Amino acid sequence: MKSPWERAGTVAEYDPQAIEKKWQERWDADHAFEADADPAIPKYYALEMLPYPSGTMHMGHMRNYTIGDVIARYRRMRGFHVLHPMGWDAFGMPAENAAIQRGIHPREWTNTNIESFKRVMKRFGFSYDWRREISTCEPEYYRWNQWFFLRMLEKGIAYRKRSRVNWCPKCATVLANEQVVNGCCWRHEDTHVEPKDIEQWFFRITQYADELLDTLKQLEGGWPERVLTMQRNWIGKSRGTRVRFSVDGIAKTSIEVFTTRVDTIYGASAIILAPNHPLVDTLLASAGAETLYAAQLQKLRQASAKTADIAKAEKEGFFVGQYAVNPFNGEKIPIWVGNFVLMEYGTGAVMCVPAHDDRDFEFATKYKLPIPIVVQPSEGATLTPQTLTVAFTDYGKSANSGPYTGFTSEKAIEIMTADAEARGFGKGEIIFRLKDWGVSRQRYWGTPIPVIFCGKCGMVPVPDKDLPVVLPAMAKFSGLGESPLASVPEFVNVKCPKCGGAARRETDTMDTFVDSSWYFYRYADAHNDQAPFDPALVRTWLPVDQYIGGITHAILHLLYTRFFCKVMRDLGLVNHDEPVQRLFTQGMVLKGGTAMSKSKGNVVGAEDMAEKFGCDTGRLYTLFAAPPEKDLEWSEQAIEGCWRFLQRVHRLVSKHAESLREAHAGIGPDASLDTATAKEKTLLRKAHQVLRRVTHDFETRWHFNSATALLMELINEIHAQEPLEEGVRPEVAKEVLELLTLMLAPMVPHLAEELWEMLGHTGDTLAHAAWPKFVPELAAEDEVEIVVQMNGRVKAKLSVPAGLGSEDLVARVISDPKIAKLLEGLTVVKKIAVPDKLVNVVVR
């Protein structure tokens, strides 16, 4: 009688639609991904940036959520109690614009899209705890936006003032400084932002500027350096001197300039104003030149708005016909307007010192302004106008600078700043590029600002007991720049909470970035109707262990979340300084070389793809086609390759599953290989070597593409050893197939669950399985000796595992203690690897 292992297996058909539906229903029935606070188990908070639900979900969206889901599933298998929630960034202008264009209510448009997005997310098997779902357009959520606003109002962090703001004519609303990208609206790259004077609400984010800068140190190693650099540059802390230049011939009019190099002020040959500087129109009118330069000024204002990189743009400007007086030497210098001076930094005016600033040198050369040299190098040849071909921007010694000549630049800055303060025309100062966050929006679909204006009592906060201030069900959606709420009398006209007299509500709504600045705290206690959240639950789950989202949010969303965290800490709600410990910015999915976008007509619909290939194929493709931090070019041919691979896996396991169902898997971690056959040794070594390397990929660097390639190698090896029934014991075959299944589980969970059940596991799902441990004896790889060079010269020889890829090989070499000691004090410029042969490190 034949043994079960000798029976011929039946190869089952791979039907992803049926398999995926089956396991999604099972997970739902088992409440598989629900997580409640449990201090006895180590927690892991995995989070993807919540989506704005517009249109239908495409594969560009799916990459972000797939990466996050792999991490969440892997961490569960490693024994962590994983919080993995999802919600909807549901307020915003696209919904309101849709209402204007389609004649439907923003809520209807938004909720229809949410339903669609949620259906697709469930179909792809993302392991969210849906009990914690939030939607920021619901009163139970935005009530707490209003509560935070009132607390900030009490602390003086929220305030109102009339100011010149950024106005997007296409959105018909105000934009925060962070929402102006290269002078254009962040939503409309072709729409120039215009200055406009208007009464607005602000959050005093500048109150936290120093701390926002300082605590970036806590994020080093956990956040991409690129993001940290972008935030440092945006906060833009500078130490320097504020100097006041009087305007010649116009009483009580002066121009303030902030400079970090006051030691060069004797070399100023002009004052240059930003095109939007408030004095420009006054100076032109005083000179009788407003008509003459009106067209040129408008051109400069538009040019400065659309320049992608102001430092590289051609410098343009014109003389306004007025002069400023240098307070240090009384010299009159012309006042110009220039397209490279920004109102957003400093005072919107700079002193043009062409010999010692690159942009000034370019401007002065073009317009033939004097280029006096007032700093000479500490060593080397003396600079002359004839030899100066580029600006000398280093520190040196002052020259041609009156009583300050001969001082080092550092000493001159110190003395000249003190003299400016003593003489009353300047002072030392630290400034920030960061400006206060303008949060007023003249649109309907946002959180109402909880403030009432009374003719007798003035501005009155809405009492907490009257929250939420609910958006009225209907409003006229004009998009003309005045809040639609102003046209709803039953909303506007109220009684004053203080005196009971007639009053009116604030009709502006909040910037929707307020919604997304604290939403991940709400996930910890999503349905609390007494507070934004229970601080005890937040202490259990927060900070976020891993946040995943696009680089486009490096300044906008991520800076605001850090600000909100510090405000909540100061309100006693949280006990940490930073909300996110680790951040990962995934690459985009491209089609035809550009990011998938409905407006560009190049999207691949997630549901269309799932119907054709199955969701697991879509998941695997987004993981395999490129490292997660790199952009991915969509390829129909490549996704078909992933489909064929999963078919191959399914055929392999289904062929042997019936025969192996009753077998006991494994030889055990302490078992000897002495009795193993050659086939068994080959299979076990390959399986455990792949497990070791896949574990490394999941644990340290998220190279799911290389992990998938390793699993493909394992499949190839198993096929190479067919027929398994000859020379392989059932327990060994089952161990190899189970290891394969467990390694696939985070990436293609539906198929993995099906394979696991085929192999005889009919109890708990893989959602509760443990990640396997490799046997060191089996996982050890053959070693090769490689040569280590520095700048082409042999410095050492090292033994390393054979078959390491270039990146792993370099990492192994650089971390070796012997090599690390050789590199001490040197800067690594380049690393070149030839697998199994050599690594050359270029240093200086």
Helix and strand topology:
Layout: H1 16-30, E1 43-48, H2 59-77, E2 81-83, H3 93-102, H4 106-123, H5 139-154, E3 158-168, E4 173-175, E5 180-181, E6 184-185, E7 194-203, H6 209-214, H7 225-235, E8 238-247, E9 254-259, E10 270-273, H8 280-286, H9 290-306, E11 317-325, E12 332-338, E13 349-352, H10 358-367, E14 375-376, E15 397-398, H11 409-423, E16 426-431, E17 437-438, E18 440-441, E19 451-454, E20 458-461, H12 489-492, E21 493-495, E22 502-505, E23 509-510, H13 519-522, H14 535-541, E24 546-549, H15 556-570, E25 583-585, E26 589-591, E27 594-595, H16 606-613, H17 615-624, E28 632-633, H18 636-660, H19 678-701, H20 704-720, H21 730-744, H22 749-758, H23 776-779, E29 783-790, E30 793-801, H24 806-815, H25 817-822, E31 828-834, E32 838-843
Parallel strand pairs: 1-2, 1-24, 10-12, 24-25, 26-28, 29-32
Antiparallel strand pairs: 3-4, 3-7, 5-6, 7-17, 8-9, 8-11, 8-16, 10-13, 11-12, 14-15, 18-23, 19-20, 19-22, 21-22, 26-27, 29-30, 31-32
Helix pairs in contact: 1-22, 2-17, 3-4, 16-17, 17-18, 18-21, 19-20, 19-21, 21-22
